[in-house]
Write the structure tokens for this entry.
Amino acid sequence: MTQRSFADLGVTGPLQRALRAENYAHPTPIQDQAIPQLLAGKDLLGIAQTGTGKTAAFSLPILQHLSANRPSDKRNADDKGERGCRNRRRSAPHALILAPTRELALQIGESFRSYGRHLSLRHTVILGGVSQHPQVRALSNGVDILVATPGRLLDLHEQGHVRLGQISHLVLDEADLMLDMGFLRDVRKIIAALPAKRQTMLFSATMPPDIARLAREVLSDPVRVEVSPRTITVEQIDQRVFFIDTANKRALLAHLLQDADMSRVIVFMRTKRGASRLAEQLGKAGFPTEAIHGNKTQSARQSSLAQFRNGRARTSPRAVSTSPA
Ligand code: AMP
């Protein structure tokens, strides 16, 4: 954490109030470096992983810019009238955030909801694996901020349900993961449909050559902010490594799970099939377990997460690579 406050960075009152409610006392390093530059309208290349606070680093300036241009969020805007406001509400989105996975997109949507709680901006999350109808309805009612996985967004755009011609703010989040998951073509097609004049932010934990090229193409004179990945290890977590033969892994896991202090356990797996198989085996061994991966429907994934959160499932094996749209 840094010594400057969010007010020192230029963040306005309604956003500061929302941050107080989230118990964010001070900006994280990436927020401290990125927010003033983004508020000034600069493009940004952020080398940062999840856990650094990068979501607030891009969503706060977007919320602040859009609300400054929005009559209903300005104090003395009463004279603009209801009708003007309603028309604006049906307008096309002004900010687009592209994320590689459905879970990340939902998490970003949640962040916009909590940080923007005192503003009247509307956001919606567009993702695959669920019915498109509620998403189409939300779009036709008008949204200001669109958070999306690339495949479904492109699909809805090709069907004529999404207007991208008003986008003034673009975020490419976890760009290296988008590359790994094969979305770069879709991302490029989406970018081709956006206005050239816009503020663009690209976040990536690593900089493989394809992402460096994409960054050169889409960013204009960007500020580069790099934060050390050390910030993602949480001090309260005791980390241990066991060197063990594959054949003995499951027995060791069952042994470790005997410890009643391990009340909520997440097991990260390499494959979806492995995650399902382990969930079944642990369930049979008496450990209530839910698996989460990309072959499950979005509602099954969310219901598994809910079971895990409320304590009905103690273990949750996850395949590391989940597939979005
Ligand atoms: P992110 O890297 O955006 O996924 O954020 C990681 C976590 O840090 C999230 O749970 C945020 O709610 C939390 N967070 C972000 N900014 C701050 C802050 N300034 N103070 C405390 N927690 C924060």
About this structure: Strands lie at 44-47, 95-98, 123-126, 145-148, 169-172, 199-204, 223-226, 265-269, 315-319.
